[in-house]
Amino acid sequence: LAKIHGCTRSISALIEELCENFAPSIKGVSKAAIESRLQECAIRESKKPGAKWIIKEDSKHYMAP
Prior knowledge:
2 strands; about 60 residues
């Protein structure tokens, strides 16, 4: 979640980055699974380019202090 919060990448670029990040440690993680979890936990400020990703309030307890 720390990689997502405040990120300004597009959804496709963010999913690609997360997939590359998790690939070495979690075998078989799919882009679809990452996208699904992303949509559960985060929301974009707006649809404009450069808008930040924000972690939803009900998912913030998963973030490390």
